[in-house]
Specification:
The chain is globular and about 55 Å long. 47% of the residues lie in helices and 9% in strands. The chain has one domain: Uracil-DNA glycosylase-like domain (Uracil-DNA Glycosylase, subunit E, 3-Layer(aba) Sandwich), CATH 3.40.470. The N and C termini lie close together (10 Å). It has 9 helices and 5 strands, in the order ααββααβαβααβαα. The protein has 215 residues and is of the alpha/beta class. Helix 2 packs antiparallel against helix 5. It has helices at residues 3-15, 29-43, 78-83, 90-101, 127-144, 154-161, 167-173, 188-193, 198-214; strands at 62-63, 69-73, 110-113, 148-152, 182-185. The structure holds uracil.
């Protein structure tokens, strides 16, 4: 939400007779680290969905727990399952280049996926797998309190917005996620498959960067 929109919203609340609004108390980076570690620990041996059967490592998420930006992908692949880290395969290498192009490194952002365990043969996660896993992501968002989201790919966008639109719709309509500015762009794995999408992805990243740097 922009500062202007927030001010208008607060004025509206005041005009309707409410003179107190409660905002969550600030949380230190150290506390966020502790809360994320506890959440990871709680879910290391999760068996809430069949993806647990193929799990070598839970791919919880990584990066700066106090990040301004949170990047959300779809699901771990083979390399991620082996290392426990998100986006470490070919798509991850391209992601690093995409981030570098907008002056960001992994240490500045937090990266997580919709599901934390690898779907067999890298198929899309099934609805019941996403439903089982989403509470972890929501808790991560609650702890990190990002000021902006970058959503990688259609599966993540459709899941987070619970909307069956196509990628173009999300890229151009740019709905907020939980009142937070959100940019949706192509998944790096899709960009590896289709070079023609690199130009529009670059345009999305530049828009994201403008907002990120203004926050
Ligand atoms: N693709 C994703 O969406 N996430 C990863 O962690 C790796 C590949």
């Amino acid at each position: 939400m922009s500062k202007r929109a927030l001010l208008q919203y607060l004025e509206l609340i005041q005009e309707s007779g409410i003179d107190h609004v409660f905002t969550p108390a600030p949380v230190s980076a150290e506390d966020k680290i502790k809360q994320l570690a506890a959440l990871r620990e709680e879910n290391l041996n999760c068996t809430k969905c069949p993806l647990a059967e193929g799990r070598i490592e839970l791919v919880f998420g990584s990066g700066n727990p106090d990040a301004k930006a949170m990047l959300i992908g779809e699901a771990p692949g083979d390399n991620e399952n082996k290392t426990g880290l998100p986006f470490v395969g070919a798509a991850g290498q391209l992601l690093d280049k995409m981030l570098a192009a907008i002056n960001l490194t992994r240490d500045e952002i937090y990266i997580a996926n919709i599901v934390k365990c690898r779907p067999p043969e890298n198929r899309n996660p099934a609805p019941e797998e996403k439903i089982a896993c989403l509470p972890i992501l929501l808790e991560q968002i609650k702890i990190i309190r990002p000021k902006i989201f970058l959503i990688m790919g259609l599966v993540a966008a459709q899941t987070l917005f619970a909307k069956n639109e196509n990628l173009g719709w999300f890229r151009t309509n740019r709905p907020d996620l939980m009142g937070t500015p959100t940019y949706v762009t192509y998944h790096p794995a899709a960009l590896i498959r289709n070079q023609n999408w690199k130009r529009p992805a670059w345009e999305d990243l530049q828009e994201f960067q403008k907002t990120y740097e203004s926050l």
